[in-house]
Design brief:
Elements: H1 3-9, H2 22-31, H3 40-54, H4 57-61, H5 68-79, H6 83-92, H7 94-116, H8 120-135, H9 150-168, H10 174-183, H11 190-198, H12 204-209, H13 214-230, H14 235-253, H15 267-288, H16 295-305, H17 319-334, H18 342-348, H19 359-368, H20 374-387, H21 392-405, H22 409-427, H23 430-444, H24 454-462, H25 473-486, H26 492-500, H27 510-526, H28 549-567, H29 572-580, H30 582-593, H31 605-615, H32 621-640, H33 651-669, H34 674-692, E1 704-705, H35 716-738, H36 747-755, H37 759-775, H38 782-797, E2 805-806, H39 817-824, H40 830-850, H41 856-860, H42 865-878, H43 894-899, H44 905-914, H45 916-922, H46 931-939, H47 950-965, H48 979-998, H49 1017-1041, H50 1050-1060, H51 1068-1087, E3 1095-1099, E4 1102-1106, H52 1108-1116, H53 1130-1143, H54 1150-1164, H55 1166-1174, H56 1176-1190, H57 1197-1212, H58 1225-1238, H59 1245-1254, H60 1257-1276, H61 1283-1295, H62 1326-1330, H63 1332-1339, H64 1345-1352, H65 1357-1374, H66 1392-1409, H67 1418-1425, H68 1430-1440
Parallel strand pairs: 1-2
Antiparallel strand pairs: 3-4
Length: 1455
C-alpha cells in the first residue's frame, strides 16, 4: 500500500469521526487506478528498482531459495509456452520466484560491485564471510560457544544454500573464501566450518591449508574443539562434528604419500599433528589432575576419548591410517612428560595398578588396543622403551591394562621378560634389567588370575642353576650389583623376597650373596621392618603394603596347625622361630595361637598342637595358665548365656559392592566386550580390597584350609560370600535366558579368576560353597544348582592358578576344589543321589556347552573328572533304560533340555548321554568309571534309604558285575573276562570300605557285622561269594579232567600284597594296622567256601591236598596278629578243618589224605593244631557231622587223636586218669593247658604234673611253653590271663626240671639246637618272641631259693641268662618294655620298669655263684653282653681271668 493511499484512506487518530466500514474502504480502492505495465521487461525493471532502494545483501543471502535443479526445470518448461501465457504463468506461480532468484543475487552483487569498484567474486566472498561472522556472535548466556541455536541454524541453512548457488554460478571462489575467513576478526565457530565442510562449499582441509600460520590454525581449532567438548547441546551433532573433524585430521596427518604436496600443503599435516597432540594433552593433563575436582575438564576429556571408537569411521578412513594414528597416540601417552625417574617408579608402582589408574586413561588404552594384536602391542611397547624417554607411570599402567583386558597378554609378557633378561645378561644392560623387574612387578600387582606372583617369577628367573646368572661369576656380580643399587629405593616387600628367596649361588661365590643380604637386612631395619617380625608363612609377592603383624600371625597359626594335623609333628618353621626368632614367636605367634576360646569336647588339631608345644617347653607356664583360665571363662560365659559376639558389619562398603555387582549385571545384559568386563572386574577387585582391608594375601602356593566343620556366623566375610554367590548365580541365569554358555563370553571365568586375588574371601567362599553342596544340596533350587555348578566348572577350568584346598580329616591329601567337592558329595541315600545327579548333570552339561572346541583336551578342561565319574555311576543305577548302551547320538540341545523347567533329570541325562562330546569323554581312560570306583561307591549305599528295592539292587549289581565290567577290557576299567581279577577287586574294595568304616581311631574288636548292616557290604560280599563259587566249580571240572595246573589261590596273594603295603610295620601303628586288616580279611575268608583254603593237586597220578599257602599265611601273618598266643580265631580254625574235610573228596583216599595233612600241619603249622585243641568243644560236633555227610569211613586218625587228647586232659583234671595217649606231646600239652584254663578250680595242678612227669619231659616242656606265653600275654593284654596263676603254674612246672636244664631250650629262639622244640616259635607272634626276656626275668628271680639254687647250676643257665639280659636291655633301649601295659600292679607282680635293675642284680649274682664249669666258653659269654652293660661285662671278665686253681677247667676256645 502506497503512502498516499495510507494517508488518504486511514483516519487520523485525533479525529472523532466514525471509522469507515470495510465495504467503504474497498469501494474507495476499486475506484483508484493502478499503473499498468505493457510487458514483462517493464515489470522486471520496476521490481529491480524497488529492490535496489531497500536491498541488504547479507540478509538477502540467508533467504532460502529453491534448489537450482527445480529452477532450471521451470525455465525449460517456460520456453515451450505461448508468449502471452508465458507472462501470466511466471507471474502466477513459484517458478517466477525461482527464475528471479537465480539471476537476482548475481545482478545485485554485480551492481553493488560496480558501484564499489571491486570484483564481484570478492564482494560475494566478503558478504558471505560477514554474514558468517554475524551468525557467530555469542549466544546470550554463553561467552564461548561453537554450536548454533535453532534460529541461527535456520539462517545458516539459507546462507549455505545461497553460497552453494553462488558457487555453482561462479560468483564465489573457494580459495578466496578461505582467505577471507582467516582475514575476518574471528574465524567462524566450529559448527559453521563443519557445515561448510559437509556441504562441500569449502572443506576443512582447505581452510587449514590457507591459514596464515600453523600456530593460528592450531590455536583456533584446538580452542573450538575444547569448547565443543564442554558445551552442552545436541549430542549427535557434537559427536558428528568431532568424528568428522578427527577424520580430516587423521587423513591429512597420516596420509600415505606427501611427496607431491606443495610447501603450503605440507604444512597441513603438521597442523593436524599439532591439533591431535594438543587434544591428547587435554586428556593427559586431566588424568594427571584427576584427584582435583574439575568436572568440566573431566567431561570434556571423556567426550574427546569417544573419538577413538573405531566404529565411528567405518568407510571414511583407511585402517592403515587409523593404526598409524593409534600407534602415534600410544607413543605420545607413553612418553608424555617423562618426569619420574626409575627410582621413583620402583617405589611408587604399587599405586599404578589397573584399578588405581584413572578410568580415563584405562579407557583410552583399551580403545587404542582394538586394532592391534597383543604381540604387536608388546613389540611397540618394547620399541618405545628402547628409543624414547618414557613416562613410567603410563608405561606400567598400560601394561596393567593390557594384561587385565587381554587374556593372551600374559604369555606375550613372559616372552618379553625373557628377551629383556637375556639381553640384560648378554650385554650387561641395566636398562633391560630394570625394565624387566618393573614389568614383572607391575604384572604381579594384578593378582594371580592375571600373572604369577613376584615371588614365583623371581624364583623361576634366578632360583636355580640354569638361571640367567648361573653361567659365570660376572653375571652373578652383575645381578647382585643391580639388586644392591635398588636397595635404597625398594619397598620392603621386595627386599623380603630377595632375602628369603636368594638367587642361586655356587658355594665359592656365597660371600657376594651374603654381602647383599646384609645390605638388604640393614635397609629393612632402617625401614623398621624387622625380619624377626616377618610371618612364618608370609606372602612375599609384593602386592600392596605389608600385612599387619596380628593378621600375619593368625595366618601363621592356621598354616602351622594345618601342617601339624598332616604330619603329627611341630613344623620346622615353628621350632626355628621359637629359637632364632623368639621376639616374633613370643609376642605375635603365641598370643595368636593362645587366643581364649570355647574348647571342643574332643581335642581338635589346634588343642593337640598347643599340647605338643607345651610338652616341648615352647610355651611358658604362666602363658599357658592364662590361656586355660581364659578358655574356662569362655565356657562359664556360655553356660551363663552371656556370650557377646562382636559382629563388625559395614553397611556402606556393602552397598558399594552391591552397586558394583549391579553395574556388572547391567554390563552383561548389554552384551559388552570382554575387555569391558575385565576392566569392571578389576574395579570390583579393588572394591573388595578396600572392603576387606586387605594388605597382603596368602602365597599362591600355600594350600587353603577349609574349616568345613566350623559353625557359620554372621560376619562380614559371610555377608560378602552370600552376596557374591547370589550375584554370580543371578548373572548366569540372566545370561542363560538369552544365550547358551558358549555364547556368553568369558565373564564367568574372569569373575572366578578375580576372586583368586582375595584369599581370605576365597577361603570363606569355598567353605560356604562346600557346605551348600555337601550339606544343603537338597534344599537348593534349580537356579542355584545351575549357578553353583557353573562356578565349580570355572574353578576346575582355572585350577592351574587356583590354590589347592585342605579339608583336614575329610581328605588325606591336598587337591583342587572341584575334586574335593566331587569326592565329598555323598551318593548313599535316595536324597543325596538325587541332588548329586542334578548337580553333576548341570556341571557336565555346562562344561560341554561352554567348550566350543571339539578337541578332547579342551573339553576336559571344562569337565571335572570326579563329577563326570559320579554321573557314570548314578545314571545307569537310577535309570534302567541307560544300561542298554544303544542310545546313539542325538541332535537335541543339552542346554535347552536342562533349562526347561518341565523336563526331568532323566530327560536331561538322556540328552547328555547322547551328546557326541560326552561319548568321546567316555572313551578316555582318565574319565572312565572303573570297576574299583564302582565298588567304592556301591559299598557306601545305605540299603534302607536306597532308591532301588532289594530285588532291583541285586539285578543292577549283577548287570554291572557280569555284563558291564567282567567282559570289559582292562583299558576300560574292566576285568577282561577274568573272574579272579574281579574277585581281587571286590576283595580289596571290601577291605578298604571296612577300614574306612572303622575310622582312624577304631579297633578291630569293634568291627562287628552290625556295623555294615545298613550298607551294601553284604550285597557286594554276596557278589564275591557268587564269583568264587563259579571259580571253584570250574576248577573242580578241570581237576576231574586232569587239566588242572598247580597254582596259588588269589586269596592269599591279595593278603600278602595288602600287608606288604602297610608302612612301618615294626612300629605300634603299623602293627595295629596289620591286625586291623587281618581281622577284616579273616571275616572275608570265613564267608567264602572252605575249599578256598585247601586245594587238591595232582602229584603224579594221585591227587593230594595242598595246604602250603594257608600254612604260610598262618605262620607269616595271622600268627602275628594273635594277641593271645597259640590261638587262631575260632571261625578261621573251623573253616580250615572244614576245608580239609571237603577237599579230601578230591583224593582217592579221603581219610588218609586228612591224616596226612594234619600230620604235616603239626610240623609246619602247629598253631592250627593248638587252635583246634583250644576250640575243640565247638569244633567237634561240626567236624563229626561234616565227615558223616562226606564219607562213610571212620574218622581220620589225626582228628580222633585230638579228640582223645582233649578227653584225657578233661578227665585228668577231675580224677586220676589213665595214661595219656601216645600221640604228639604238643597236642597233649595244648589240650592239658587249655583244660587248666577252663577248669582252674579242678584237681591240683601239681598232682597232674607229677603224673605227667612219669610219662616224659616233652609234654611238660610244651606245657611250660604255653604257660610262658600266657605270662607274656599278661604284659600285652592284662585282662586276658590271670597273671598270678600263670606265674605259679610256670614255677610248678619248673620244679619238675630242677635237676635238668632242658627247659632252657625254650629261650634259645628258632635255633637248630632246640631239637623237637624248634617249631614252638611258629605258634607265637613276633611280639611274644621279643618279650621272652621279659618273661624269663619275671619268672626266674621270683622262684624260691631252693629251686633257684638248683636252676642256676644247670650247665647252660648262665649263657641263657646273659642272652635274656641282653635281649631285655635292648627292649628298654628300644622303648618296648615300658609300652605293653599301663595297668596297676599287685604287690606280687613286678613293675616292668623295675625288671631291668632286678635282672642286673640277678645276673651279677648268677655270675658270682655259677660254677667254673659254666665259663668254659668264655669268649661266647663275653660276646653276649658286650657294649650293653659295663658292670656285667666287668663281673664276667673277672670270672674269666685264669688262675692256678681253675686252669685245669679252661677248655680251648676254637670258635
Amino acid at each position: 500500500m502506497s503512502a498516499e493511499a495510507t494517508a488518504s484512506g486511514a483516519p487520523s487518530l485525533s479525529s472523532h469521526k466514525p471509522r469507515p466500514t470495510l465495504s467503504a474502504i474497498l469501494a474507495a480502492r476499486v475506484g483508484k487506478k493502478r499503473p499498468r505495465y505493457e510487458n514483462v521487461q517493464e515489470l522486471q525493471e520496476a521490481t529491480v528498482q524497488l529492490l535496489n532502494h531497500h536491498q541488504n545483501l547479507r540478509d538477502l543471502l540467508v533467504e532460502i531459495s529453491p534448489k537450482p535443479s527445480k529452477v532450471m526445470c521451470s525455465e525449460e518448461e517456460g520456453k515451450n509456452r505461448a508468449p502471452e501465457n508465458h507472462v501470466h504463468a511466471r507471474m502466477g506461480n513459484p517458478i517466477l520466484a525461482a527464475s528471479l532468484w537465480c539471476s537476482f543475487p548475481v545482478r545485485a552483487l554485480q551492481r553493488q560491485a560496480k558501484q564499489l569498484g571491486v570484483p564481484v567474486g570478492l564482494l560475494s566472498v566478503r558478504t558471505v564471510v560477514e554474514r558468517l561472522w554475524e551468525l557467530s556472535a555469542p549466544v546470550e548466556g554463553y561467552t564461548d560457544h561453537v554450536l548454533l541455536n535453532t534460529a541461527k541454524k535456520d539462517q545458516m541453512d539459507g546462507l549455505l544454500q545461497s553460497a552453494k548457488e553462488l558457487l555453482s554460478l561462479g560468483a564465489i571462489s573457494r580459495q578466496l573464501l578461505c582467505q577471507e575467513i582467516w582475514k575476518a576478526e574471528k574465524p567462524p565457530i566450529l559448527e559453521m566450518v563443519w557445515r561448510l565442510h559437509k556441504e562441500n562449499i569449502v572443506t576443512l582441509e582447505e581452510i587449514l591449508e590457507s591459514s596464515p600460520s600453523s600456530s593460528v590454525a592450531v590455536e583456533w581449532l584446538c580452542a573450538d574443539l575444547r569448547v565443543l567438548c564442554g558445551q552442552p547441546g545436541e549430542i549427535e551433532v557434537s559427536q558428528q562434528i568431532r568424528s568428522d573433524v578427527l577424520s580430516v585430521l587423521v587423513r591429512k596427518a597420516f596420509q600415505e604419500s606427501q611427496d607431491l604436496l606443495t610447501s603450503r600443503s605440507k604444512r597441513t599435516p603438521q597442523v593436524c599433528f599439532a591439533v591431535l597432540d594438543e587434544m591428547l594433552s587435554l586428556i593427559l593433563h586431566t588424568v594427571s589432575n584427576s584427584g582435583e575436582e574439575n568436572c568440566s575438564q573431566m567431561e570434556a576429556a571423556k567426550l574427546w576419548i569417544n573419538v577413538f571408537d573405531v566404529g565411528l569411521y567405518g568407510g571414511t578412513l583407511f585402517v592403515i591410517s587409523l593404526q598409524k594414528f593409534f600407534l602415534h597416540t600410544l607413543t605420545q601417552i607413553l612418553t608424555f612428560k617423562p618426569q619420574l625417574k626409575v627410582s621413583d617408579a620402583v617405589g611408587m608402582q604399587w599405586k599404578w595398578s589397573f584399578a588405581k589408574t584413572c578410568p580415563l586413561l584405562t579407557s583410552l588404552y583399551r580403545k587404542l588396543f582394538v586394532l592391534f594384536s597383543v604381540e604387536e602391542l608388546m613389540a611397540h611397547l618394547q620399541q618405545v622403551l628402547e628409543t624414547h624417554e618414557v613416562n613410567w607411570q603410563h608405561i606400567l599402567s598400560c601394561v596393567s591394562t593390557l594384561l587385565v583386558c587381554h587374556a593372551q597378554a600374559q604369555h606375550s609378557l613372559k616372552d618379553l621378560l625373557t628377551r629383556l633378561l637375556s639381553n640384560a645378561f648378554e650385554a650387561y644392560d641395566l636398562e633391560s634389567m630394570i625394565t624387566a623387574f618393573l614389568l614383572a612387578r607391575q604384572a604381579s600387582l594384578e593378582g594371580p588370575a592375571v600373572f604369577m606372583s613376584y615371588t614365583e617369577w623371581y624364583k623361576l628367573s634366578f632360583g636355580n642353576a640354569s638361571s640367567y646368572h648361573g653361567n659365570s661369576k660376572k653375571s652373578l656380580v652383575f645381578l647382585l650389583k643391580f639388586l644392591s643399587d635398588l636397595v635404597p629405593f625398594e619397598p620392603p616387600q621386595y627386599l623380603k623376597v630377595h632375602v628369603l628367596h636368594p638367587p642361586y649361588v655356587l658355594t665359592k661365590y656365597r660371600p657376594f650373596l651374603l654381602e647383599y643380604v646384609s645390605l638388604a637386612k640393614t635397609r629393612l631395619a632402617d625401614l623398621k621392618v624387622s625380619i624377626e617380625e616377618m610371618g612364618l608363612y608370609e606372602d612375599l609377592s609384593g602386592t600392596g603394603a605389608p600385612a599387619q603383624p596380628q593378621c600375619q600371625a593368625q595366618q601363621d597359626v592356621e598354616k602351622a596347625v594345618s601342617l601339624f594335623e598332616k604330619t603329627g609333628r611341630i613344623p620346622a618353621n615353628v621350632m626355628e622361630a621359637s629359637i632364632f626368632r623368639r621376639p616374633y614367636f613370643m609376642s605375635r605367634f603365641l598370643p595368636a595361637l593362645l587366643t581364649p576360646r570355647l574348647l571342643p569336647s574332643k581335642p581338635d588339631p589346634r588343642m593337640s598342637f598347643i599340647e605338643s608345644l607345651r610338652n616341648a617347653d615352647k610355651i611358658p607356664g604362666s602363658v599357658y595358665t592364662a590361656y586355660v583360665q581364659g578358655c574356662q571363662k569362655e565356657e562359664r560365659q556360655l553356660e551363663g548365656g552371656h556370650v557377646e559376639v562382636e559382629v563388625i558389619l559395614s553397611t556402606e562398603p556393602l552397598e558399594e559392592l552391591k552397586a558394583r555387582l549391579k553395574e556388572m549385571t547391567s554390563l552383561l545384559s548389554g552384551g559388552v566386550k570382554e575387555g569391558d568386563v575385565s576392566a569392571h572386574l578389576a574395579l570390583l577387585s579393588e572394591t573388595l580390597k578396600s572392603l576387606l582391608g586387605e594388605t597382603n594375601e596368602l602365597p599362591t602356593e600355600t594350600a587353603m584350609k577349609l574349616d568345613v566343620d566350623a559353625p557359620s556366623s554372621e560376619t562380614l566375610l559371610t555377608k560378602l560370600t552370600n552376596i557374591i554367590l547370589k550375584s554370580f548365580c543371578q548373572n548366569l541365569m540372566d545370561a542363560s535366558r538369552k544365550n547358551p554358555p558358549q555364547s556368553q563370553g568369558n565373564w564367568a571365568s574372569l569373575f572366578v579368576k578375580m576372586l583368586y586375588g582375595h584369599r581370605q574371601l576365597l577361603q570363606s567362599l569355598l567353605t560356604r560353597l562346600w557346605n551348600l553342596l555337601c550339606h544343603q544340596g537338597s534344599s537348593l533350587s534349580a537356579g542355584h544348582v545351575l549357578g553353583l555348578s557353573a562356578f565349580v566348572v570355572h574353578l576346575h577350568e582355572s585350577q592351574a592358578v587356583a590354590p589347592l584346598v585342605d579339608l583336614g580329616s575329610l581328605s588325606p591329601r591336598l587337591c583342587p576344589f572341584a575334586e574335593a567337592v566331587s569326592g565329598s558329595l555323598l551318593c548313599n541315600t535316595e536324597e543325596t543321589m538325587t541332588f548329586c545327579l542334578r548337580f553333576c548333570i548341570a556341571a557336565v552339561s555346562y562344561g560341554l556347552c561352554r567348550c566350543a572346541s571339539s578337541s578332547v583336551e579342551d573339553i576336559q578342561a571344562y569337565v571335572p573328572k570326579g563329577l563326570f565319574r559320579k554321573l557314570l555311576y548314578l545314571v545307569p543305577r537310577l535309570a534302567a533304560e541307560m544300561r542298554t548302551g544303544t542310545l546313539g547320538e542325538g541332535e537335541e540341545s543339552v542346554w535347552a533340555v536342562l533349562r526347561d523347567p518341565c523336563s526331568s533329570w532323566k530327560s536331561s541325562a538322556l540328552a547328555l548321554w547322547k551328546h557326541p562330546n560326552f561319548q568321546k569323554l567316555q572313551q578316555l581312560p582318565d574319565l572312565q568309571l572303573t570297576f574299583q570306583d564302582w565298588l567304592v561307591a556301591e559299598l557306601d549305599v545305605q540299603r534302607s534309604t536306597d532308591t532301588l528295592s532289594d530285588a532291583e539292587r541285586q539285578e543292577y549289581q549283577q548287570w554291572v558285575c557280569y555284563q558291564q565290567y567282567l567282559p570289559a577290557p582292562l583299558a576300560a576299567g574292566g576285568c577282561a573276562g577274568d573272574l579272579e581279577r574281579a574277585c581281587v577287586a571286590i576283595m580289596n574294595a571290601i577291605v578298604d570300605h571296612s577300614i574306612r568304616s572303622i575310622g582312624p581311631d577304631g579297633h578291630s574288636e569293634g568291627l562287628e557285622p552290625s556295623k555294615f548292616s545298613g550298607t551294601c557290604y553284604t550285597d557286594i560280599l554276596t557278589r564275591l561269594q557268587e564269583m568264587v563259587y563259579d571259580m571253584e566249580l570250574m576248577r573242580s571240572k578241570r581237576l576231574a579232567l586232569g587239566v588242572m595246573r598247580d597254582e596259588d589261590h588269589f586269596l592269599f596273594r591279595v593278603i600278602s600284597e595288602r600287608l606288604a603295603t602297610i608302612p612301618d610295620r615294626e612300629s605300634l601303628s603299623g602293627q595295629l594296622a596289620q591286625q586291623q586288616e587281618l581281622f577284616i580279611l579273616t571275616r572275608i575268608i570265613t564267608s567264602l567256601p572252605p575249599a578256598v583254603l585247601v586245594r587238591a593237586r595232582h602229584k603224579g597220578r594221585m591227587a593230594t591236598l595242598n595246604c602250603e599257602p594257608f600254612f604260610e599265611f598262618v605262620n607269616g601273618q595271622q600268627g602275628n596278629s594273635c594277641a593271645r598266643g597259640c590261638v587262631l580265631p575260632c571261625e578261621l580254625t573251623a573253616h580250615f578243618f572244614r576245608g580239609v574235610l571237603s577237599a579230601s573228596l578230591d583224593c582217592a583216599h579221603p581219610r588218609a589224605a586228612v591224616s596226612e595233612v594234619l600230620s604235616d600241619c603239626l610240623l609246619h603249622c602247629p598253631l592250627a593244631i593248638t587252635s583246634a585243641a583250644f576250640w575243640w568243644p565247638r569244633l567237634q560236633a561240626v567236624l563229626w557231622a561234616q565227615w558223616g555227610r562226606l564219607c562213610e569211613e571212620p574218622l581220620p586218625e589225626e582228628l580222633q587223636s585230638i579228640a582223645d587228647c582233649y578227653s584225657w586232659a578233661s578227665s585228668a583234671l577231675c580224677e586220676a586218669a589213665a595214661p595219656p595217649p601216645s600221640d604228639s606231646p604238643l597236642v597233649l600239652a595244648a589240650c592239658l593247658h587249655w583244660a587248666l584254663e577252663r577248669q582252674p578250680a579242678g584237681r591240683d595242678v601239681r598232682a597232674v604234673l607229677g603224673e605227667m612227669e612219669e610219662h616224659g619231659e616233652q609234654v611238660l616242656l610244651f606245657l611250660l611253653f604255653f604257660s610262658l606265653v600266657d605270662l607274656i600275654s599278661v604284659k600285652i593284654q592284662p585282662k586276658a590271663v590271670d597273671p598270678l596263676r600263670a606265674m605259679q603254674r610256670c614255677a610248678d612246672i619248673l620244679k619238675c626240671f630242677k635237676d635238668s636244664g632242658q627247659w632252657l631250650a625254650l629261650f634259645h629262639g628258632q635255633s637248630t639246637d632246640q631239637g623237637p622244640y624248634q617249631s614252638i616259635y611258629k605258634m607265637i607272634s613276633d611280639t611274644h618272641i621279643r618279650l621272652m626276656p621279659l618273661a624269663f626275668y619275671s619268672l626266674v628271680p621270683s622262684l624260691d631259693h631252693t629251686l633257684l639254687t638248683c636252676v642256676v647250676k644247670a650247665p647252660d643257665f648262665l649263657r641263657t641268662a646273659l642272652e635274656m639280659y641282653s635281649g631285655l636291655a635292648r627292649l628298654f633301649l628300644d622303648g618296648t618294655a615300658s609300652t605293653p601295659t599301663q595297668a596297676k600292679h599287685t604287690p606280687e607282680q613286678v613293675d616292668p620298669l623295675q625288671i631291668l635293675p632286678r635282672a642286673q642284680q640277678f645276673v651279677l649274682q648268677a655270675i658270682s655263684l655259677s660254677p667254673q664249669s659254666c665259663f668254659l666258653y668264655g669268649r661266647q659269654l663275653e660276646d653276649v653282653c658286650r657294649d650293653l652293660d659295663p658292670e656285667v661285662t666287668a663281673a664276667l671278665s673277672h670270672r674269666l681271668q685264669p688262675n692256678c686253681d681253675d686252669s685245669l677247667y679252661e677248655v680251648p676256645d676254637f670258635l
